Automatic annotation (TrEMBL):
Keywords: Membrane, Transmembrane, Transmembrane helix, Transport. The chain crosses the membrane at residues 12-32, 44-65, 77-95, 101-121, 189-210. This is Major facilitator superfamily (MFS) profile domain-containing protein. One of its GO terms (molecular function) is transmembrane transporter activity. Its main location: membrane. InterPro entries: MFS, MFS_trans_sf.
Length: 296
C-alpha cells in the first residue's frame, strides 16, 4: 500500500468518519432490534415489520440523493446527517415498555434513514474524489475497510457499556438477564452512539472542505428537434473535403515525380491523361504524359 494516499486530508478524514459512521449505524440497528424484542416483547416477525418503514424509505431517500448530490454542497449534508442520527439515537434512548411504537420508534426510524442518506453517500464521494485514477481501487478498498472495522469495533464498545450497566441494574444489585429492565443498559449504549456521532461531526466540521463535488463534463448537446438534413449536409461536406485533400496529395506526388525526372534528365512515365504538367525548372519547359519534352 503506497502511503502517499494518506497525505490526502479528504481521504484520511473520510476513513475516520466512515469508521464512526458504521459504528453508529450498526449500533442503532442492533439496539433497536433488542428494544423491540426485549423491551416490547415482540417476536422476530413483528420486529422485522417494525423495521419495514426503515427499509422502504431508504430506497426512496437514496435514489433521490443519488440524483441531487451533484447540485449540493457535501459538508452541510454530512453535518446534518450526523445531527439527525444523533437525534434518532436519543429518541430511542427514551423508549420504555409503555411507549407506543407510532409515537417514538416510528418517527425515530424515519429520522435515522435521512441521517444515513445525508452522511453515508457524501462521505463516500469525498473519500475518492481527489484520488488519482491508478489509486481509485485502492482508495475505495481502504474506505470499505474502515467501514468494516467500524461496525464490529463500535458494537464491541457499545456492548461493553450496555453489559457493564446491566450487571448492577437489578433491584438487589444483581445483574439483569432479560426483559424491560435491560433498557437501562440499552440507553447508555445509545448515548455511546451519540458520542460516536459527536466525534464524526467534529472531524467533519474541522477537516472537510465546503466546496461542491466535481460535476461530470457535459456532452455536446444534441436536440431531439434538430433537423436530420443538417447531419446529411455535414456528412457530404466532410466527404467532399476528404476527396479534395486526397486529390491534392495525388497531384503533389505527380508534380514531385515530374520534377525529379526533369532534374535527372529522365522522362517520367505517368499513368495520366494527356493534360500537361508544368514543372518549375532551370528553364521553362513542359512535360506531357507521353514523356515528350518541348521547350517553349
Amino acid at each position: 500500500m503506497p502511503f502517499r494516499i494518506w497525505k490526502s486530508r479528504l481521504f484520511t478524514s473520510s476513513v475516520i468518519i466512515a469508521f464512526f459512521s458504521m459504528g453508529m449505524m450498526q449500533g442503532v440497528i442492533f439496539y433497536v432490534n433488542m428494544i423491540f424484542q426485549e423491551v416490547y416483547g415482540w417476536s422476530a416477525i413483528k420486529t422485522a415489520l417494525g423495521f419495514l418503514v426503515h427499509a422502504l424509505l431508504a430506497i426512496v431517500v437514496f435514489s433521490i440523493l443519488g440524483r441531487t448530490l451533484p447540485m449540493m454542497r457535501l459538508k452541510p449534508l454530512i453535518l446534518t446527517g450526523f445531527v439527525l442520527r444523533c437525534g434518532a439515537a436519543l429518541m430511542f434512548a427514551f423508549v420504555n415498555e409503555d411507549t407506543n411504537y407510532w409515537h417514538l420508534p416510528f418517527p425515530a426510524l424515519i429520522v435515522h434513514v435521512f441521517g444515513i442518506g445525508f452522511s453515508f453517500l457524501p462521505v463516500q464521494i469525498t473519500a475518492i474524489r481527489d484520488a488519482e485514477n491508478k489509486d481509485q481501487g485502492l482508495v475505495g478498498a481502504i474506505y470499505n475497510t474502515g467501514l468494516q472495522l467500524g461496525g464490529p469495533f463500535g458494537i464491541a464498545i457499545l456492548n461493553a457499556i450496555s453489559i457493564s450497566t446491566n450487571e448492577v441494574s437489578g433491584h438487589d444489585g444483581s445483574s439483569v438477564r432479560g426483559g424491560p429492565q435491560l433498557m437501562k443498559g440499552y440507553k447508555n449504549a445509545l448515548f455511546g452512539i451519540v458520542a460516536f456521532g459527536v466525534i464524526a461531526f467534529t472531524v467533519t466540521a474541522i477537516m472537510l472542505p465546503w466546496d461542491k463535488p466535481v460535476r461530470p463534463a457535459k456532452k455536446a448537446s444534441t436536440s431531439e428537434n434538430e433537423d436530420p438534413e443538417n447531419h446529411v449536409i455535414e456528412g457530404k461536406v466532410e466527404v467532399v473535403e476528404r476527396e479534395k485533400l486526397e486529390r491534392e496529395i495525388v497531384l503533389g506526388k505527380v508534380e514531385s515525380l515530374a520534377l525529379d525526372a526533369d532534374l535527372a534528365g529522365i522522362p517520367p512515365v505517368l499513368q495520366k491523361d494527356e493534360n500537361q504538367i508544368e514543372v518549375e525548372g532551370g528553364d521553362d519547359s513542359t512535360i506531357d504524359s507521353r514523356g515528350e519534352e518541348s521547350t517553349q
